[in-house]
Amino acid sequence: MSDIEKQVLSCFVKDPLSIDQAISRRIDTEFFEIPECRKLYEILHWYYLKYRGIPSEEGIKQLVELSKKTTDDIKQRIILLFSEVVATTVMAQPTFLLDQLVRYFKENELRRALMHGATLLKDGDIDKALLHTKEHVSQIESRTLSYLKEASLTQNLNERASRYEMFQTHPHSSTGVMIGFPTIDRVTNGMKPGWLVVSLGANKSGKSTLLLNMAVNAWQTHKNVLFISLEIPKEQFEIRFDSYVSGIPYDKIANGQLQKEELEFLKGSLDKQKANPGIFYVMDTIHLSASILASYLKRLPHKFDLVVIDYLGLMKADSTRGTKDWENISNIGLEIRQVAREFEVPILTAMQVNRDALKGNGAVFNIENIALSYMLTCHADLIMSLKVKDREEQMQSGTCDLTGCIAASRVSGTALFDLEADFTKLTIREKIRRLNMTPPENKVEVKRDVTIEEKTSF
Q: How many CB atoms lie within 10 A of CB 99?
């Protein structure tokens, strides 16, 4: 029997509240290798949830005897195991022991995955071996993601008071990542760690362009940005990036139609990028799930301030297989939000609305009818929508006006705002409305509203 399993079970018996930590980390019976350890944890878990305590030795005997699916041999070993863990001295804190149990589980599961993969490889089925190993590793990572923050609100009063005072004396301490759209930045005060932000829109409404603009705007304020492209190759994304930063039309760069002056200007734009201390890291992949994203965030040598995924509908769910599409989308949203919380980073992504959501003429889409899953709105912290005002203008000139909206939020207010897009240069800017107050010469103050359309650049 593994000593770590015995230590963890002993910790549960000596400190029943540690079972809450195990539950929060999604530790179930499968984390234990030995059958009697699995069954004892199942009994302790059930009893604790029902009575908020641990049964006596006599109570364990009675509960074990009630089990119809357990053999007499296992029953006897469970009773002996309980006596043993009661007598065992706990050598470490619950958090450390649970960490070791998770590590032990990952080792065993990885060993099984590699052995099965090796067997398939020996039989000559290389593709099946590789696929099986990838899927199993993905499941291991998904199972072992953990996130827990806790506090006694009746005891950390001074800590909270100091934090709120710091917000007043240093307002920027409560600011998240600014994404370069004044209305969004003002309403949200920046994208905060742990948020899942989803932008909705119809086909060709500018969702990917909006994500690019937000990512580059954040990078230009010296933030570290990870951009994962599931839709276009890395080289094509690089052209989009340079078109946005330099202001040179995408087609001229991609098709080799630059004038000599434009080429020199583009090279100058590339040189200027060296001065930015922020990291802009792009990944081009066609396979992405929450567990794979978590492995990227652990592997890459940078601490990212913002993660952008283009886009959510092309991701794979970790926890389901063979289910309906709307269930997969719902699970992906939940799993990605868990990664955002785990790594304390805002994640921006996009989703295409289906046709039923486009029937209305209002500025806000029917967000309960999003791309096969109304549950996505439950998992996201912030839902934004984009709507093209004139499709014909967009098709003819590559420029058009958009209606933007913070449609639903659990973390901020909502807002409507106007945007102007130039898809030839991959730019989307917000139109700013200001109140211009001009006192006349007779010194009688007269107010008049003037609408100024201003391109906002960050």
A: 15
Look up residue 339 and give its amino acid: V
Note the pLDDT tens digit of each residue in 49-89: 888 889 998 999 999 988 888 888 999 999 999 999 999 98
Domain assignment of residue 42, given as a range: 3-143
Domain for residue 457, yes or no? no
Helix (H, G, I), strand (E, B) or coil at 275: coil
Domains of the chain: total: 2
Q: What does the buried/exposed string (b/e) look like for 367-377 if buried means 16 or more CB atoms within 10 Å of the residue's CB?
A: bebbbbbebbb
pLDDT at 188: 93
Residue bearing tokens 């040179």 = 248
pLDDT band at 437 (very low <50, low <70, confident <90, very high): very low
Bridge partners, 428 (sequence order): 421
Instruction: Tell me how far apart the alpha carbons of residues 216 and 222 are, in angstroms, rounded to a whole number.
Output: 10
Measured distance between the N- and C-terminal CA atoms of the chain, rounded to whole angstroms = 60
Same domain, 132 and 168: no
pLDDT in tens, 386-412: 888 888 888 888 899 999 989 888 888
Asked if residue 417 lies in contact with residue 180, where contact means CB atoms within 8 angstroms, the answer is no
Give the whole-angstrom CA distance, residue 199 versus residue 264.
36
Tokens in use for 231?
Answer: 């839709």
Count of C-beta atoms within a 10 Å radius of residue 117: 21
Whether the pTM exceeds 0.70: the reply is: no
Q: How far is CA 224 from the centre of its chain?
A: 16
Q: Are residues 426 and 355 in the same domain?
A: yes
Angle between helices 94-122 and 3-14 (to 10 degrees): 150
CA dist 314 → 200, 205, 232 (Å): 14, 17, 12
SS (HEC) of 50-107: HHCCCCCHHHHHHHHHHCCCCCHHHHHHHHHHHHHHHHCCCCCCHHHHHHHHHHHHHH
